[in-house]
Every structure is written in structure tokens, then in C-alpha cells.
Amino acid sequence: MSALSDYRRREESITMSSEPVGMGETHELLTLNIGPHHPATHGVLRLIATLEGEVVRDIKPIIGYVHTGIEKTAEQKSYWKAIPVVERMDYLSYYFNAMAYCGAVETLLGIEVPPRAQYLRIIHLELNRIMSHLVWLGTSALDLGAMSMFWYCFRERETILDLFEMSSGQRMHTRYFQVGGVIEDIPAGFARNVQRFIDEMPSRADQYADLLEKNEILLSRLRDTCVLDEQTLLGWGVTGPLLRAAGNPWDLRKAAPYSSYDHFDFRIPVGTVGDNYDRFRVRHAELYESTKIIQQALNGLPEGPHIVEDRKVALPPRHELATSMESLIHHFKLVTEGFRVPEGECYYPIESPRGELGCFVRADGSAKPARVHMRDPSFVNLQATAPMVKDAYIADLIATLAMVDPVLGGVDR
């Protein structure tokens, strides 16, 4: 009954008065229910905020409104058929979700991804990082009243989605990453179109800065608001741009390189204060760094296969099915049953647009994973919302929510 009564108490929006502080004066605390928001805004998130006038004294995030049971669903599918399910945990970071999952399975299998496939993965991961940051920048600026930024950012986002459609046939949830590599090599003209985009992207990012850095209203709403220091962030397990904005350069692409990230030269943008302005600047600076990585990947793209040649793990090329009975059998077995993974467990972390995204997979020797669990940065980073906004104005809460997580993707897996 205590849990039920606590839930009912949380559901009530009430006004409470504290002890008198003067002749006839009292401090009034208002418990305000904010949300749950529609998915078209920043994900389904509900906030129970305790306000004293316009000042936030406490806030409690309530999640679970779009819980879809993705992890348990993945455990009911063969390893390679779970990839589309995992991708859908975050509609802005589907390549990263697939990368973490495939990396964990590849580690358990002990297979080496071909160099060309690793570079192709990096090109798509960094394009996805830019796309995710563009959605963050456009929607965050819109929340603060800068409506034109939304259209400018989504203009470049559409170009990236066109590139994804060209390489995979899908604009979102592409299923391009496979265990052992990528589903197919890039088509003719893809590299040329990517080059055209990265030639334009730095000047576009300059335009974003020119529009926002000269806007005194926006700067006053970001600078010195909702500051949180590095040690507090580390205590909450926060990673990604939020931690780097406080001055800590932790980035798994440098700290624990994967998929040939150690072949590339790029820097990690960091802040100095840890306020909303630093969070904005760090993500904005990452647009340039991702562009540099893509350029290097295009210049050094190795020749060779785009996926492992082990027919017991990867589907054989379609042209072999008409001439090779062995290939036909492998294809039939993989599609109907899938491949078996030796017993063991693995945690595979990567650097997503919002911080450390890790996938834990436990194998029991069958063709289906015994356990799949995702460590989503959104879920962890959301813990820092309360200390960030405590004693800040409710107007600053809007900007801070956008800086904490643009979409709160992965919160409800």
C-alpha cells in the first residue's frame, strides 16, 4: 500500500505552504505536472517539478510511456534478425544501435571485420552523428524561439537521409550494418555525393554559428545557466557531450578505439564552464570533427570485401545461389535458423551522439541470444536533470532538457 499511496501522491498536483517567514508571509511550493510530451517533440517524458514561484526546487523525471520491450523481443529472434529491432530504440541513432549490437556478437564469434567494412561503418556512423546533432540543434533552437534554425538544420538532415537511402535503400532504420560487415558495398556515385556534402557542411555549420552566436537573447539564456561540474556528472555516470562540456575529454573513439577509429586524426571538443552554452558549443564543434573523419575515411577507403567471407555467418552473394548448391544451403540455413554463437558474454561500448552506448549480449550456444541489454546514454544522462535545474528558473528548464538529450532516445526500450 505504501508504494501505491506514494504513486497517488505523486499524481496529485497540489500547492503546499511552509512555515511563515514573516508577518503573514509564506513560501508556497507548487508541484507541477509537465507532460508526458508527444513523441513529435522530445520523446515521451513526464516531469514532476516542484516550483517556488518561477524557481525550480526539485524535479523528478518519469519514464516508461513508450516501453516496447525491445530487449526481450531481440532475445526471441536469431542473432542477425534482431538487428532491425535494436535499431528502433533510437530513431536518430540507428547506426549506433546496430554497431553496438553487431560489435558484441562479432566479439563473441571471434571474427574480424574487413577493413573496407570498418571504414564504411565509420562513414555512416559519422554521417549519423551529424544528422543527430542537426536534429538537436534545430529543435533546441526552436524551443528557444529561433524558428529559422529548424529549417536550416533539417535541410542538411534531408541530404544525409538521401545518402542513407542511396547506400541502403532506406532513409531510416536501414539495417545496413550486419554481423561481420555491411549488407552491401556502396553504389556508384555514393562517394561523390558524400564528398559534395562534406564540402558544404563546414560552411553550413558556420552559418549556424553566425545566426546563433550573435543572438543576444539566445546567449543570455544559455550562458551560466544550469551549470554542473565534472565530478557531479561522473558521479551520475554521465558521458558524451554533457561530460565533455564540463572539461572532461572522455570519448570512446579515442579512449578505446573500435572499427579503425585509431586510424583517424580528429580532436575532442571540450568546454570550460559546464553550462548550457558549453553544451551547445561542444555539439556544434563536433559537426566539424565528424566531417574531418568522413573525409579521411573517403580518402583512405580500402579495397576488399564489405563483409566477412565466412558463409556460416554472412549471407552468400545472390549471384552464387544459382550456381552453387553449397551457397544455397548456407543461405537457407542462415535465413531459417541463423548462425550459432559459442557460449559466453560480451559488453561492447561505443561513442554515440549522446555518450556511451553499450550492448551486453550473453550467448548460450544457440542461434538466439540468451540476453540482450543496452546501456543507453539517454537513460543515464537523464539522472543529471535534477541537479542541473535545481534553483534555476523554469524558463531555463526548457533549454536544459534540450541540451541533456535532444530526443531522449533509448529511454523506453
Structure description:
With 413 residues, this protein is of the alpha+beta class. It has a single domain (70-377), classed as Cytochrome-c3 Hydrogenase, chain B. It contains 16 helices and nine strands. The chain has helices at residues 2-11, 70-74, 83-87, 94-109, 115-143, 147-168, 190-213, 216-222, 230-235, 241-245, 252-255, 276-299, 325-336, 377-381, 385-389, 394-404; strands spanning 15-22, 25-34, 46-52, 55-62, 177-178, 181-182, 344-352, 355-363, 371-375. A four-stranded antiparallel β-sheet has the order 1-2-3-4. A hairpin with a 2-residue loop joins β7 (344-352) and β8. α4 runs antiparallel to α5 (115-143), α5 runs antiparallel to α6 and α6 packs antiparallel against α7. The radius of gyration is 23 Å and the shape is globular. It starts with a helix and ends in a 9-residue tail after the last helix.
The fraction of residues in strands falls at 5-15%
CATH superfamily: Cytochrome-c3 Hydrogenase, chain B
Largest sheet report: 4 strands, antiparallel
Assign the CATH topology.
Answer: Cytochrome-c3 Hydrogenase, chain B
Number of separate helices: 16
User: In one word, what is the shape?
Assistant: globular
Unreliable spans are 13-21
Tell me which CATH architecture applies here.
Answer: Orthogonal Bundle
Largest beta sheet: what is the strand line-up? 1-2-3-4
